[in-house]
Amino acid sequence: MAKIELFSTPTCPYCRAVRNFLQAKGLNFTDYDITKDLDAFERMFKTTGYTTVPTLIINDKEVIIGLDEERILKAVNTL
């Protein structure tokens, strides 16, 4: 099973869309609120070089920024 990490903020509508998509597909994920979790924010920035949300990191190597349903499913099924 893929390790899925979502880096988000509570007011971001795109973050909500990604969260809803992952839940609808029955995928387990960890959701980090980067407004409250500075360590998660720093790890996201160190890994991606960006401060953009929503950011997904799948299996510590695949980075997806935004809601790209096809790419998310491909990453989850092939990694």
UniProtKB/TrEMBL annotation:
List the InterPro entries.
GLR_AS, Glutaredoxin, Glutaredoxin_subgr, Glutathione_S-Trfase_N, Grx-like_ET, Thioredoxin-like_sf
* Gene Ontology biological process: cell redox homeostasis
Which UniProt keywords are listed?
A: Disulfide bond, Redox-active center
Which GO molecular function annotations are given, in alphabetical order? electron transfer activity
Where on the tree of life does the source sit, at the highest rank? Bacteria
Cite the GST N-terminal domain residue spans from the record: 2-79
Q: Please state what the protein is called.
A: NrdH-redoxin
